[in-house]
Amino acid sequence: MPEDQTRWETFAPRYRALQEADLTADAVPAWLAQWSALAAEVMQAGAKLATHADLHTGDEAVQARFAHFLGEVSPQVQRAEQALTEKLLAVPDYTPAPDFALNYRRFRDAAALFREANVELGVTHEAQMNRHGVITGNQKVRLGGEDLTVPQAKQRGDSPDRQAREQAWRALSESNLGIAPDLDALMVELLGTRRQLARNADLPNFRDFMWKRLDRVDYTPEDCRAFHEAVRDEVVPLAGEIVGDIAARLGLDTVRPWDYNRNNLLDAGGRESLKPFSTGAQLEDLAQAAFEGLDAELAGRFRSMRGGLLDLESRPGKMTHAYCQYFPVQNEPFVLMNVVGTAEDVRVLFHEVGHAFHGFLSGAAQPLVWNRWSPIEFIEIPSMAMEFLTLDHLGHVLNGDELARYREKQLQGVVVFLPWAAQMDAFQHWLYTEAGENPSIADLDAKWLELDRTFHPFVNWEGLDETIRAKSWQYYHIFRAPFYYIEYAMCYLAAVGIWREARRDPAGALANYKASLRLGSTVSVPELYRAAGVEFRFDREHIRGLMAFLKEQLA
């Protein structure tokens, strides 16, 4: 009978054995290998329980099992890992191998941030964040006499018929407002918990706490503020130009909220959105053919996922976000999506499978679990670059005109995404450093409105209930991945740079891409970017140059 991985005693004896071992400098490599194997098992247990909870948001037994793991196993693991870290750091005359030096420094910094008071509080925090998935995973949208999932309703909002778009937008907005009070209450709880996490760590605010926790050592909050300003000045006008041109060609006198979806801009010819597939299986076939054209190794990796490591269909009771999970013991990624047949689904699948390739390649190259994947400033490059690297391998499912439309949307998507990314990051900087000790939900709504008017001035809300606009901060990452968003912008800029190089040297760009993934977390962020053939930059001059390149490509 398999061991119950929701019980601490399943793992405790092995942690105790590691803690009690005699540890000399010469013995460290073998001891680390044992610790890594154990850590991988714990990570995998949590990852599988979390994924199962997201696939069955309405199943109380599934939710309780994950909650039990968070409450029973996670706190004890944190304490045991802290003790092992302190044991490692105390070994005299130990010099880490080059491929472990970076993580040794991270271990040291994480140990300094550890506080016993934050162990149980961290369990509370995880449980609170998980409630967001339960609230949104069971969300229904009533439209045209039927109940739809959120992804299905969003698909209706991409109709070339403006009245149909407006009806879908209003139905989705009504549904969002219906759960807004629950999300407001949850955010109040989260803000209190996050303030206390920072206080317990002797830090003035949650931003500074997360800066250390996320190991942000290559840039500063001031760099982020400069990025916000650069996007405002260099990208927002181009985004407005793109959206305004589409509206003019469609004969729209103004751009209303139902005319703007940053993930899928309207077709300037008034055509239906591309629908390259109908079922999840067809999407898998489409992607398989694209990967076969791109690279035999990557195609083989994707083929191996098709036996149970993809859950693509949208259905009730399933968390509505998309992500790639990772099971480190078998070195297997798992992709969760909610597809409804759109070209945007194609892009998102390439994105999430790019993450999967990162897991596969870094896992195969790096035996120690901590050396897999990468720092978060790089982790979206494998996914976003894959969105571009597959562009020239879709001719089997899209004809010339369709491929041109898909490519245009991909390039437009980068431009209109950057203002959203800057807005998300700016909101969080304000929320955790400037909003005061106890900001009200009205304060959050007002700040979001201010930022939205700055970064999306081309959308006309005149005469509409701006409560809907004000609540758009109720987004996945604000609840479940605090301060993780500017990385998307950094990596999109890098992905454009990789694609620019691939236009010149496809084989060389792909080789650099794969080589950088295999490095995992063994080198610094700037070194990872260089390995991929780009620079770690998100300053005004760099952004201006990439926008000029995208404008040229779109022309």
From TrEMBL:
Q: What is this protein called?
A: Peptidase M3A and M3B, thimet/oligopeptidase F
Organism of provenance: Deinococcus aerius
Q: Enumerate the GO terms in the molecular function aspect.
A: metal ion binding; metalloendopeptidase activity
- Identify the keywords attached in UniProt to this record, alphabetized: Hydrolase, Metal-binding, Metalloprotease, Protease, Zinc
Q: Which family does it belong to?
A: Belongs to the peptidase M3 family.
In what residue span(s) does the Peptidase M3A/M3B catalytic domain sit? 159-544
Cofactor comment in the record?
Answer: Binds 1 zinc ion.
- Cofactor(s) in the UniProt record: Zn(2+)
